[in-house]
Amino acid sequence: MIADEQREIRELARRYADERIAPRAAEWDRERRFPLEVFRELGELGLMGVCVPLEHGGAGADFLSYVLVLEELSRADAGVGVTVAVHTSAGTLPVLAHGTPEQKQRIVPPLAQGHELAAFALTEAESGSDAGAMRARFDGGRITGTKQWVTNGSYARHVNVFARDGDGVGAFAVREFQAVREEDKLGLHSSSTADLVFDGSPAERLGPPGAGMRIALSTLDGGRIGIAAQAVGIAQAALDLATAHAKQRRAFGRPIGAFQAIAHKLADMQTEIEAARALTWRAARLKDAGRPHTVEGAQAKLFASRVARHWTGEAIQVLGGSGYTRELPAERYYRDAKVTEIYEGTSEIQRLVIARGLLGALDGAEG
User: Is 344 among the residues known to form the active site?
Assistant: First the structure.
């Protein structure tokens, strides 16, 4: 169950998603267009800083409310969902958690109100899951290096960057950088994924020296819950589409939903989506309570991403030949779902996190 305030926020996001996002999502996908105007509108509605405190320009709601918003946005367009997810959990919340009072007051309000977009730059060409192998370096107040797979990279004004700092890794707030290449992706065509170059970019420290990896990992703990919510939203969209089709499409004189093969497929689909949603809400509630949620976030992302990838494919199966065409959004859901098993930590990394929580660190274990 969710509280009345959480329900109202979800309904606001749902109405906006249905009225302003869903009707244009196919066009954005075809044109590979980043809908910048949407994020300004979401900012006016308070949805770019749902879980940011009121005193910092946000809506002052909890993390679960933010997760509910991500699900609704992603149900309409997963590219919009991931833009808001990274902007909030990876771009804005680390400043709130680790910035000085002055940094919070200066950096956060424009982000929470949707006037600026934020990004998170951790991965490099030679350091993906092995983030500790990064080569970007902070020296003399400036960062030099490159980052890749940066969501929002071509449109962000604020980037949380992780770089070598002496013998350790530091976290830094950066505003001057160059986006040099947009990825040509399988899905999420309405989102930006760019390579960034930092050529002596001025940088200000977030948190104490050497705390970069701790900040990055704690940020990912929360970010994975957001990606789980994105996966749930994609899967829900696929279920809605497949269910409507099963009621309307007729074969042998009756709706195809009357056939057990289709009915059972939809029943399994709904059940697993509800299970993924429950795992996601559980992790969000733990975060809201200030309790450990590393394993629970990993479980939510691992399961929800698998559910989204599998059942978007099965939704195409229910729709038959029409599901394989771009006349219907099923194929877009299928393309968008796959990346939820990859970014914010691959499914293999999630299993490692879960196993370590269960077994502890064992001698000779990988990673």
Answer: yes
